[in-house]
Amino acid sequence: MTHPFLDLPPMSAAQFAAIEERVARLLGTRQDVVITQGEALLPLEGCIRSAAGPGTTALNVITGPYGQTFGGWLRDSGAKVVDLAVPFDGAVTAAQVKRALADEPAIDFVSLVHAEAATGNTNPVAEIGEAVRAHGALFMLDAVASVAAEPLLPDEWGVDLCVIGAQKAMGGPAGVSAVSVSARAWQRMADNPTAPRRSYLSLLDWKQRWIEPGRTALPHAPAQLEMLGLAACLDRIEADGPAAFAHRHATAAAATRAGVLAMGGGLEPYVRDSAAAAPVATTLRTTGGIDAAALVRCALAPSDELPLAAGGGALAAELVRLNHYGPMATPEVVDAALCALGAGLTELGGSPDVRAGRRAAAALWE
After folding, report:
1. How far apart are CA 353 and CA 158, in angstroms?
2. Of 88, 192, 196, 221, which one has the greatest count of Cβ atoms within 10 A?
3. 80-85 and 57-62: which strand pairing?
4. How far is CA 17 from CA 23, 136, 156, 205, 340, in A?
5. What is the pTM for the complete model shown?
């Protein structure tokens, strides 16, 4: 018997290239777009190892755990790394980046995460990109969590390497990702003797074997199910319109924040300034001695289908995250999460006003 997930016709090079073109339209970019066959850590590491190496001086902006990961890859590649770390409950500013660039004129590579889903913050990429461009450095942006949830304009913002993934706001599978690559970035890779070649991390292999011959023959068999999932994500975004799709995520974030502030009783927003709060996920800080991991367990006890999670590592005791992205960016999910968190707070000795929280959130959707 046939199976809809298994007995699929082969994916042609033309189909693969057409999906790349649709990703380019989503990003509003004229740069080369390469779809990579793996979770977004694949192109993120590939970008760093391809564009940085001995002789590189990199400014690595750390606003969450992924910035810390990038610093490790940069050092492992042989780059000199200047870390610019800011508290995880806020965003980096363009002024801070400008000062770091002025203090170290040799910086020729800058890495930044647009939105940190783990900590719930988002960074002002347009202003930072202007500073990086004026300095003349290559600019790499991790936009895995921000794509489709908020404006993302790599060409306008001077981003040379922009990595996205399908698994968050796009609402798709984790096994497919993409990167837009500027002409400057291709040249940097070509000039880097340590850039990966004949490797799964190699972007230059894709350029040589796929882009330069005209995208007529795929270098290897495509990850077909993931590619079809990515195409379906693009269908939904195009049907809603990118602006409406992003607005739904922004409303989910605003409604969650308003609901938690009105509910109180042991929870408050983790990101203190609403302007620095990411639309893809809202992080919350427990107060009054309430343990975040215990709160999440209580909230999920009736049903573990809500997109709630406790923070990782040192944040496990104080941080709760609501992932309202993709199909979960809805009033129903936000309302259900507030109810579950309110019930958990009450069980743990808090005194939330759940009715007030639900009313405040609903008002934002209306």
Report:
1. 46
2. 88
3. parallel
4. 10, 31, 24, 16, 44
5. 0.96
Residue 228 lies inside a defined structural domain of this protein? yes
Return the axis-axis angle of helices 224-240 and 13-27, rounded to nearest 10°. Answer: 40
Tell whether 103 is covered by a domain: yes
Furthest-apart CA pair in the chain: how many Å?
Answer: 66
- DSSP code of residue 81: E
3-state secondary structure of 73: helix
SS3 state of residue 203:
helix
171 CB-side CA count, 13 A: 19
pLDDT at 5: 82
Segment 45-93, tens digit of pLDDT: 999 999 999 999 999 999 999 989 999 999 999 999 999 999 999 999 9
Pair (184, 261) in one structural domain = no
Model pLDDT for residues 261-289, shown as the tens digit of each residue: 999 999 999 999 999 999 999 999 999 99
Structure tokens at 42: 């694949």
Shared domain check, 191 and 155: yes
Query: What's the CATH code of the domain at 278?
Result: 3.90.1150.10
Q: Are residues 233 and 303 in the same domain?
A: no
